[in-house]
Records
---
Amino acid sequence: MRSRRFSPRQSALLLFALGIALLAASRVVDELRTYQGAQVAVYVIAIASIVLLTGYSGQISLGHGAIMALGGYGAALSFTLWNFPFALAILFGTLVGSVGGFILGVAAARLSGPYLAGSTLALAVGLPTLADQFHILGGEQGLNFDIGDPPHWMQKLGGDNFTQYKWFFWITTSFALVVIWAITNLLHSSYGRNWKAGRNNAVAAGLAGINISQGKILAFTVSSGLASLSGALFGLLLGLVTPTAFPLSLSFAIVTGAVLAGVGSLTGSILGGVVLVAIPELSGALATHLGGSQKMTANLPGLLMSSLLIVVVLFMPHGVRIGKFGRQQQANK
Amino acid sequence: MFIDTLLIGISSGAIYSLMALSLVLVWRSTRIVNFAQSGQAVFSTYIGYEIAVRAHDYWISLPLAIIFGALLGSLVDLLFMRPLLRRVKDGPIAEIAPVIATLGLLGLLQSLLGLIWGNAFLQYASPLSAKGFTFGSHTVPFSPQNLFIVLASCAVLVIFGFIFKYTNLGLALRAASFQPEIAQLAGVRVSRVRNIGWAFAGATGALAGAVITPTATLSPNSLDLLFVSGFIAAVIGGLDSLVGAVVGGLVLGIGFSFILQYIAGSVTFLVGFIILMVVLLIRPRGIFGRDAGRHA
């Protein structure tokens, strides 16, 4: 998105500066906000995976919650069973999800529109139940993924009050920034252009020598890798992975976030992530304000989220854009 | 044991068929998979529940719930899908906009239901016994309610089969889905005909909700899994074919029932996913699907 103006190195520096600023900010804000910041970072990665898949490659997935579960379980399994260090465990989870995504992508490349949506929907419902079947996956209780307190060198670097949440924020934000940088470059490479070409006009792209189905499989694999990375980080934030941590609503939530982001915009995914975290918070406050009955607190988040989704699809099908920057992005498509 | 499992399968398959039929009806009329279908169906079921509680009569509530379902389906098309399809014609989400929009509608309906009736599980009793028929000393797991479910699904299939094959309305419905422009030129009011397709679908979904809920409980999300099964069934059948939807539903119902009996209950949806994948990879348009959906 920014490469029209920034080279990869410049954008890397920019994101690095942003990262430093965010990490510095985490020293002043309170614990809850720090944790929510970490959640935003996790959602940003998940939404970026949908942006890549839907906005660029033109495929849809309602099953990315299940792919996140693959990543979460891969990470937690390698962490508890083989005592991988947590960073390696997260990468292992990403690998597991990418392999799963590759297998799924081979099938997905042959399916279109509603068929793909429905198959991935069935996957989202079916896959988490697998955890009950194998003793090694811990059943309903799930698997422990508690990485404990930040290491000593980190506490030295971060000061005395460097809490676990700040450590989480540090990890997730670093991953998110690296992901945004890498994916931005990927989408502006020949891969990204080929994906877009295949999405816009498959016949013309095929005639121009682009292997459409190979591109689709690759997009699904990369997207699944991102989703499973966010799933592994999601497990890290929770301290454990359970089948119920990756419900159908999670798959829907990240698609919602991607739509709010305008599906085609990677920078928009940050906005999407903020909205996904902010809505439960806002609606909680609103429900308390309106009397705070149990019905209200349980259903207001869903109501707000779905209304927002409908409004965006109906009135802002290109996503929520802010000012001139947004229009320019749109013109580039 | 085998017969018992088969009977359970047929009964749940009949319900899947109803849900699959309602999806196929919308697909045939508008080329949209209506992910809000479970929300519409559960809304109608809540209306039926409310009437049944007030009037103390299931048999009054059933037709009213179906009528409400038809109205709701028609309203969703009029107030929601048409503006959407008019507005979102291009851009990055044009292809997935209907999926997203119906998902949004699903969330909206379910949270509204939660606000009105709460999220607690409600009981919606039917006068029919849920106890299985007894033959000699053996009680089969097939109750009068199950029989009613199967009969209702058969009736729906017969009615729709008749409408699609032998009436002008059916011809118009088929024409509107096969070649909308030419149908319009031939004097078919395509958008009105499509609206009728949505109403039929809403009514079928409402029937599914109203007959299955007495055997389970009612909550805003209680039909979600039924929707997923119905969707798998519809896709197995080809999304375009009414007969395919029913066959798909029965195959899936019986398959699930045998998995539940002989393997494990919790993997059913995973197996459903695998069945779906195998069918789609062998026949990307489903078993009964044709490239041009012309037949009833």
Note: Chain A has 15 helices and two strands.
---
Amino acid sequence: MKEPKIIVCAKQIPDPEAPFSNVSVNVEKKEVVVDAPDVISPYDENALEAAIRIKEEVGGKITVLSMGRKVSDTVLRKTVAAGADALILLEDAAFERLDSRSIAFVLSSAIKKIGEYDLILTGRQAGDWDSGQVGLILAELLGIPSISLARSIKIKDDSVVVEKLVPVGYEVVEAELPALVTVSNEVGELRYVARTKMMALLRRPISIPKWGTKQLELSVEALNPVQLMELCPPPDMRRECVFIEGASSDEKAGKLAAVFKELR
Amino acid sequence: MGPERELFWKIGPGWLFYALAALAVGLLLVGTAAHLQLWMKSSLKGKVAFSREALKQTLSDVFLGLRVLKGEVAAGIMHALIFWGFLVLTIGTAILLVHEHLSSFLVGTSHLAFEVAMEIGGLILLGGILWALVRRYVQRVPRLERRLEDALVPLWLLVVVGSGFILEGIRLASQKPEWANWSFVGAWAAGFISPGIAESSYPYLWWGHALLSLGFVAVIPFTKLFHILGAPAAYYLHHSSEVSIKASLFSRDLAQAPVNEDEVAPETGEAALDFAETPLNLADIAFYDACMRCGRCVQVCPSAGAGEAFAPRDFIQATIRALWKEHSRVGDIRLFTKDQVIDPKVPWHCTTCAACLEVCPVYGAAFEAVSKKRTTLILEGTGVPDLMNQTLERLFNYENPWVSSKREKAAWTKDLDIPALTKDGKEVDFCYFVGCTTSIDARTQAIAKSFSSILKHAGVSFGVLGEKEPCCGDIARVVGEVGLFEEKKMNCLDLFSRYDIKEVVTSSPHCFHAFLNEYPEKNFGVRHYSLVLKELIGQGRIRFKTNGKRTAVTYHDPCYLGRHNRIFEEPREVIRSIPGIQLVEMDHHGADSLCCGAGGGRMWQGKELDGEARMSEIRVREARATGAELLITACPLCLIMLEDALKTLGFEKELRAMDLNELVLSSLELAGNNLM
């Protein structure tokens, strides 16, 4: 087949691996405050890695789409350093805190504007809100087949062959191209991007198109912000380790039983 | 006619011999040229300057053979015998040619002296070869490989020497000169030979001997014999490069090479990285090429010793093999070499402990070769283990390799009244650079707490950078993330200059090493805390309580304090100066110390690299064998590893791991603290 045109949707989020002390929950404002650098959502990085491996095997062109109120090209350039060919940022004040359908709608408009594509890859879910809906809704909006939870993706002739995770293992599923696949972490981590590579890339100007509602010819009314009903702080996960001292096993067991009784 | 030897006695045309000799020398030269071409092609471009000092050291290395003798007396003597025997015979043969064609000076007494010298030369060569064969095939010294080449080379030489003596015997048996007894080995051999047979067989044997000898010369560049030329070159390049025993992991030109903007590929920036493709310099390649697989590095490598899938020798052999295939126009000219499959995980085993450099006869730092390979893997991106990938991301984002935030770095100072240099603007003697691990890890925070208490006790004014303390970048450096290391370095230099820091004292030997050797631009002094302790004790500013109780302690040398920076004695002096403390040494100590297994980024790698045993457990067993109660070390990483091993082995009750600071603090007079 001809070399596939692959689109990878990558979301910029505050680092989900941020140390716990950098994260706090504001219950009243229904806000999670993360004092951590922005990164690409890890599952989306898996999707990009899958795309790069396909490109290494059969060739092709990878375009990364990233959407948000404000998207940092410094963060997203990592995708280019890793092996993507083009980067398009979808930026607009109206893109803040949208619900999954609206996000998928904006992405579908952008993908229609790009025009030609064979394969769309997204992460199985975003690393911040973990909704796991955008990919599948996007496929619906584009009217193409979709396969979720991929652990391996291969292009064969004019179709995509996916090992799809199921609770007891995986199924091998095939779909005709163009298709959309949501990618799970089993695919493997995004290859490391050396700082020298990143710095070299940051130093040189590359053209990164920025499309907003205007360029995509969208009306803001068509976009619905997400309605957050309630936000709870995480449960107190502190642990305490106590060694029960005692002369004999019986004595220790007795003391242990006493502890259980007290905790009940 | 007085004592003399007829060179081409009974041998037909002399020109045939010279034609063959020219062929042999030609092959030697062509082969050597191929090696040189490989060296030039696969290294960074740089000039080799002439240095009298380097030449002097090279000659002493070559002729005294101390590097070969070091720690391996039997092997060293064996090598010396072969070396001197070979040298005497080679020079002797050359003299014989001069005598024949230029000036006939080998007559009378000088001829007799010459004959005796050649006899002795032959004998010691013979002895050396036999010893070598016994070591490899009878004693079966574990570090020695037994490949075809390993048998062929000494046997060949053995036949050359043996046939030489027999030839001499035949000549003497048939000529019966009255001075025959001066050639005592030949004369003895002559006793077994009847003159008739002697005369008829002589020409055949002579040509056989001649062909084998010339052949031996010709195959030098094509076998492991190349070390005859490669090792002296490696010595010279080692001594002349500014990188001394205080090893630098990679050439600085690598990280600092200017990016050529014109050559950057429009989309990926790939071309900008070409400079990093060859992080090797001439000294590296000379060492790889001079390696004759003696295996001393394997013998001392802690990773190999723990049964991990790594052996420095094999790594070097695979590296030079790859270089031959990649950079030589004619491919690998060496006979008996074959492709070795090296698992992509292999380069991640090395702890960069430098034990290999300590014992390598040609100053080969295999750990540097590993780091250079890591540099390539980091640039390629695909061969980086997931855990290392995550560690480097964390290091970049949070200024430490642990799952912790920079803001946690000052947590240990809570309630301790430690001056923060970033706030107080106070004049202090030095900045205590606590380091990521010591600041963050709950166990190793005790190092910082005890050191601060000691400093206060001694009335030293110091301060810390607290939450602003950056990472020195050393982890990035040892795992080959050159760019990240450079960023961290610039970060540190900026901060130190912003707060006008002129003196730095570190907890970790790793930060110490990085500042001392890998920050060429620095304008501050740096010491490890053990040096400060020693100084304070020397000045009488630390007062120990007298203690009737005697405690035996043993000391584990951190690699980056000991081997890398030669600080062996200072921590021991601190220990010895404490009343009631008796220092007992482990089998491996000082320059032979065994790594705890945390260096080279291994602290942040997974269990999948582990072998049959863990390096830390091997070390702790050795410590327990000393019968000491305390295992003292001077590095936060060592402390974590050793204490962990004590727990997993269940030795906790017999042996406690402790930092040197903790030991000193617990022995202080007026130790008004609750740490111990």
Note: Chain B has four domains: 14-227, 235-248+274-385, 387-535, 540-666.
---
Amino acid sequence: MSTIAMPEPDVGILARAPQIIAALESVLSAGTVISSPEETRAYECDALTAYRCPPLAVVLPRTTEEVATAMRVCHELRVPVVPRGAGTSLAGGALPTADSVIIGTMRLREILEVDTANRYIRVQTGITNLAVSAELEAEGFFYAPDPSSQLACTIAGNIAMNSGGAHCLKYGVTTNNLMGVRIVMATGDIVELGGPLLGTSGLDLIGLICGSEGQLAIVTEATLRIVPKPEGARPVLIGFDSAETAGECVGGIIRSGLLPVAIEYMDDVCLRAVEAFVKTGYPNCAAVLIVEVEGSEAEIDHQIARIRLIAEELNPVEFRASRTAEESLAIWKGRKSAFGAMGRLGDYLCLDGTVPVSKLPHTLKRIGELSKAYGLEVANVFHAGDGNMHPLILFNANAPGELERAEEFGADILRLCVDAGGCLTGEHGVGIEKRDLMTKQYTADDLAIQMEIKSVFDPAWLLNPAKVFPLEVSQPHREAAARCP
Amino acid sequence: MTFTDKQTNNAAAAVSPTSEAELAGFIAERHARAAPIRVVGGSTRFQSEAIAADQTLTSRRLSGIVTYEPGALTLIARAGTPIEEIEAAVAAEGQAFAFEPMDHRKVLNTKGFPTVGGMVSANISGPRRIHAGACRDHLLGVRFVDGRGRVIKNGGRVMKNVTGLDLGKLLCGSHGTLGVLTEVALKTLPVAESQQTLAFHDISVEAAIEIFATALATPFEVSGTAFRSGTAWLRIEGLSPQVDYRRERLSALFRDREIDIVNETDSRMLWRGLRDLHHFAGSNVPLWRILVKASEAPAVVARLNALGGDVSLDWGGGLIWFESSANGSAVRNAAGRGQAMLLRRGTLPNSDSFPPEGASIARLSAALRQTFDPAGILNPGLMDK
């Protein structure tokens, strides 16, 4: 059994399931409502697959207006709604409850406007992250946030989780690239926020919506900032015989005035797994950094020369600068297949804590000690430039008690991140996974105001139940919501 | 000048706590009595005039840098810390705030000193906003006291943080109406080692907007795009060889036009003046800050010019500064789909400061204000008219 509790489904809602489905079907176009158990099972989990529960029904609208209609019905019938993009959340952000209706954005795939003169694109949010950049390719632009699930994940999910990616060191995360949204409120009202203007004279409601994990509204359209493609980009690979030295090198590069697009870190456990999987030819050492810089050929050479100066002070095991597109691919290949390579070693939990860059060496050392204490191996592969760690805890799901032990180990690592001055989640979101750890990072008042804000947007507390806020902490709010008319 | 007089009076009556706990206690007491407060930082802007409160609260004695880690590009400071103090500390490490916050003293003829809390609460961002993003994009975390006197923290000191709702964005640009900031964490960035500016003379607004759009579609990271009195400027920054290369490429792109190059020190001076609107200093004629879609700027400027006055542009044309004696509704009509805020009020009424909001946004904003400040004591009348 897993350790994260979900609330008991509302038996009243379960008993009314046929009427609820009929009500949705009566106002939505044919094929929009899915309710047969064989089909709803496909939506029983997201990428946090240890937790599963088929929803009461799934609604897949094609327009904002249909989303609004579905929301209005659910609101009138007091049925919880779980918003869903592509279901790639690693935090259980799209996990249904048995008494909930999923409203998915995946059929909202239209590109509404491309405006290169004002540098934005307006899309329906069910479009995948990569498809946005593909649309802009010919114009010489791209959409910067690049979560590693970008082939599958949707803009709706990116906005809900404020997704990052490898390149956000230079370009920022979703919230820095989001100019406007069209949202459907819990009541079914449609509201437009922002657009092509560079800011607002009022409250920054877009900043509040971004990263709100489906707690406040469903985002159906988005205006996204687009960026000109760089002339070129090339990585260097630097191997070190200790994690501390690699950490020092990261600080040195950042202080030097260079602004690489990415600084990625892989430790020895990860390096061995990757080597066995894809034969990268990476050096056999304690830690590898991949640093990517952008610009013209000459600019890239100049930046790489500067990185070499910083690295060579620290006696690297290897310094390999890419000279060609093929060499760049070879350097990135191991990093890009890291998660796949780890998967071959068994089951793993992927964590997402962030620490101040200066605390990376200390945190890595403590994770190593905890790994011994728990008797579970851990691999580290992460975005070092911004301190966003992704420790992967290896375990055997078939061994009784091992998932629970891995989850406890993970919780200890996240507490360690908070104690180091960091946070529970850098880019995956809280979902159900980190929900019960929120009290570690936030005081009762810190959480109270967040829940009060949720009540402004979702007075009946129907949106994305049992996520983000610990159940105990949210109970008074949920009870008050249940009493309100 | 009545502004300065009022400013002095307010400062004399101001409560200025020396600790977060003291500030929280003060607000809790005012909350219990539903007694309004005018919240200010360094009093270098005039918006506090619109506020119906007889008691001023300033955070200026909550001062000092808490942590600065150049290797992590992060700085934490108490809200009342003068921006000058922070700029000096980070400059010693070759860093700065990339969003280039403007200093309003010259154009508004104020004394005082801008504080980092005031900067965040008004989301103050200068010319580099077009490339590097606004103040809100560099804000990592906040501590504040809400309208009930609760001490609340949100975000943190790390660059990637999606733990719970992002209240920092909401506080940034809320002008003290949701809470009083006590501490802010911001991202710093290395100052480019070199900069040059391309100047295009004797051109129209239409031509300037075209130049900006073309330049901003290149990969040359143009970090300043401003226009005034027939001259358009493009700023490029970076490592020295990079800047030379980018200048050559951009010059080639605009080979049909005559271009002057402004180098290093002169370029820095030029952009300081553009950032702080030195060209509109020394007057008390109303000054408007109008956000528009850049491609609509020529049409808006034509309508504004018809009202009489003087314009300058920034942010690639997405920001229009307009100095004019025209009345508020005429300026707002001319702004069309843009948003016009009054920076220097002159003789115009307080109610002109912020543009009206659409019904659903106004409703949401009011409900949020009610949540943060149920008694309506924080800067009442400023954004919620």
Note: The mean pLDDT of chain A is 95.
